[in-house]
UniProtKB/TrEMBL annotation:
InterPro entries noted in UniProt: Reg_factor_effector_dom_sf, SOUL_heme-bd
Protein's name according to its UniProt entry: Heme-binding protein
PANTHER family: HEME-BINDING PROTEIN 2 (PTHR11220:SF1), HEME-BINDING PROTEIN-RELATED (PTHR11220)
Pfam families (UniProt xref): SOUL
Signal peptide: none
């Protein structure tokens, strides 16, 4: 069983959930390519890291979900990472050849920190700490297409506005299942941090 990133359910709305995520650590890489292919292109780099391509040759357990976000979104070293697009819409940064640029990340197991995580040997792979956050999340099944992502992103943004929640940062795309799983059984989520008034 793959470990999942824990969270506390703050409120269950009719269209989405408001969750509080704890501080955690990501291993990430920036990949150019179409939205639908970014995760697959990044997988070999990230899987190599957790399989021992690090300075102590140590294997690291993989935790769900896999996260994708835009590489153009300016973040602090402690901000979160998933699959995410630029301009607040999750579409990705488009390069000169029509390629988009995305950050793709694995979440490392609970208790892993910058101090005790093995350093990557590949210069393209980086570790990043993520602070706790209050996050709006919409869950959906289906293919990992940009069209589906956009549809659910718009739904989540609208539901957040109705609920009076203010977005803090760009949306992130989270995938919980392997590519061989039938699309109608897949667990996908879009996550947007919100202003924490507590």
């Amino acid at each position: 069983m793959t470990e999942h990133l824990n969270y506390d359910l703050v409120r269950d709305y009719s269209d989405f959930q408001l969750r509080r995520y704890p501080e955690h650590l990501l291993v990430e890489v920036i990949i150019e390519g179409p939205f639908e292919e970014a995760g697959n292109r990044a997988f070999r780099y990230l899987f190599s890291y957790i399989s021992g391509a690090n300075r102590v040759n140590r294997t690291v357990a993989m935790t769900a979900p896999v996260i994708q976000d835009s590489s153009s979104e300016k973040i602090k070293m402690t901000a979160p990472v998933l699959q995410q697009g630029i301009a607040g819409n999750g579409a990705g940064k488009e390069g000169a050849q029509g390629e988009q640029s995305f950050r793709v990340a694995f979440i490392l197991p609970q208790g892993t920190t910058l101090e005790n995580a093995p350093a990557p040997t590949n210069p393209l792979v980086h570790l990043r700490a993520v602070p706790q956050s209050l996050t709006a999340v919409i869950r959906f099944s289906g293919r990992w297409s940009q069209q589906s992502y956009e549809h659910h992103r718009v739904s989540l943004t609208h539901a957040m506005n109705v609920a009076g929640l203010q977005a803090q940062g760009a949306p992130r795309f989270a995938r919980f299942d392997p590519p061989f799983k039938p699309s109608f059984l897949r667990h996908n989520e879009i996550m947007i941090d919100v202003e924490d008034t507590e």
